[in-house]
Amino acid sequence: MEKEENILGKEKIGKLIRKFSIPCIISLLVNSLYNIVDQIFIGWGVGYLGNGATNVVFPLTMICLAFALMFGDGSSAYLSLKLGEKKKEEAAKGVGNGIIISVIISIIFCAITLIFLPQLLNIFGCTDALREYAMEYGRIIAIGFPFMMIGTSLNSIIRADGSPKYSMTSMVIGAILNTILDPIFIFVFKMGVEGAAIATVISQFTTFILNIIYIKKFKSITLSKEDLKPKLNIGKKVGALGISSFITQMSFVFVMATENNLLSKYGMESKFGPDIPITVIGIVMKISQILNSIIIGIATGTQPIFGYNYGARKFDRVKETLKTVLGMSVVISTIAFILFQAIPDKLISIFGSGDEKYMEFACLAFRTYLLLCICNGIQIPSGIFFQAIGKSGKSAVLSLSRQILFLIPAMIILGSIYGIMGVLYAGPVADGLAFMIATILLIIEIKNLKQGKIKSESIEEEIDTKNKLDRHIIITISREYGSGGRYIGKLIADKLGIKLYDKQFITKVAEETGLSEEYIENHEQKRDVLAVLNNGYYSGLNNADELFIKESELIKEVADKESCVIVGRCADFILRDRKDIIKVFVYSNIEDRIKRAVNIYGFHKDKAKKEIKRIDKLRANHYKYYTEKEWNDHNNYDVCINSDSLGVEKVANLICEMIEEHKLKA
Fold this sequence. Notes:
This protein is mainly α. Helix content is 73%, strand content 4%.
């Protein structure tokens, strides 16, 4: 019976976007509103200095969030990977390590913040007028760091366990509780910024408790005390899987630290003073974050739609989805632009009143700093689009370009020339430059999609073989590019009368996932260095992880079914627990590999060496990422041999003889 097509490849695009994007938008808006609610009530109950104080404390919260997402998203990705490999015990260890590391780091960070709070506030641009409020607010907020960090980490894990509604509910309950408690502590109990901090900590504690309760309800794993014991190798893997989330959040911390210090410096030289600019820009950034949350939510929800249809070569659906996402995002950013330009005084008034200079700077900030916010409707979805289709380098550039590459340098350079206005000018400069890069990359990609008829390489037909072995034997072949390792594997398979599995996996994965053979071939067994920044921050696993899980399942299936030779794909690691396996690594000197690349693969001699090194590096990164071992470490293999020492035919004969020895000893 023909397998039913995935809904991602046939359902109406608009319906799919609504289904996947709305939950993302809600989750992101809840996170954004969490911080804004505090500022609204503090602005009315304490004044703009109270808001300024929360803005210089906010980077500390962002650092805590960065670590929480690093180990939360890392644990959720580890959970999905190990469940895909059918290794529930290892999955539980990853989750347990993610939780316990979050506990340890949160307690350490809480202690550091409480001890060094004055020094940390100085780093983030605190002024004398803001210091008292910042100290009051910061001390209490720091006490809640463990609850916030552990609760946030668990949120990611709960989503990966298949309970996104529970995860969202615990977040929403915390946000609603914070909204209720803020006015009670600030206005009824007259506790000012301390009251706002207490309300926040109580809300974080509530979310923390709800998520702790869920631990006993895990659907896919069962946690034991042993799983909660820290293990360095597992902790490193979990951290590596979540590093993209950490980098994303820390980029905001660097921006805020730089911005606050420059605003304080140049504000002091202006009629506005240092406190008004720090307060206003903090509010402006948080309001703009609401805009960004909606756009990110729309684009993130479409990641699986992009990924599936791009892989399945349904480029018309990819273009339709991209057109819809960009259209919706531009409409939203246009509405925001109109509001920021037309009624900035009304927007800032939501956060309390201020004197004439305060209102004047607020209008300047909205109209200048967010002048090109309309560009976010293109730049943000573009980065997520490239991540979804596996273009990690382009996605990483777009993700970091505005914040790190453009905004910080622009603030420093323009601030030194134009003072406080120069810092404001940096906003549209960064938005404009990031927009230009995103547009250029999109145009190039869309042209490729329109052409989109790249001929797939044919997969060899299976040859009838007669097994000459009387025992079950699996031979895995890992090889340097150009060493002839694959041909050696074919010779071994022919001599022993068993099947060779290499590109056949591509066909099988394509049949089961709907992804095109071309897409799979271009993305399997290769991991770009920049892929670390694209681990599916909002939507779980990326395409490379999905391919690895599916190929791992197929490798285990064929290994259980029959004797065979398996080329590449980390098969030596995936089948490492079997006793009937012989792991071979084939290498060769660079000169011989260049000759083979020129004669067999048709490379020009000048480019052959570069291509060999590039592919070897991608294979090594892929192997390291999924096995935590070095690809060319001879300790990983039973046989390591230079293919040019004897020639590929004699090497194949030698390995066959060794297999016979292995068979007799088994």
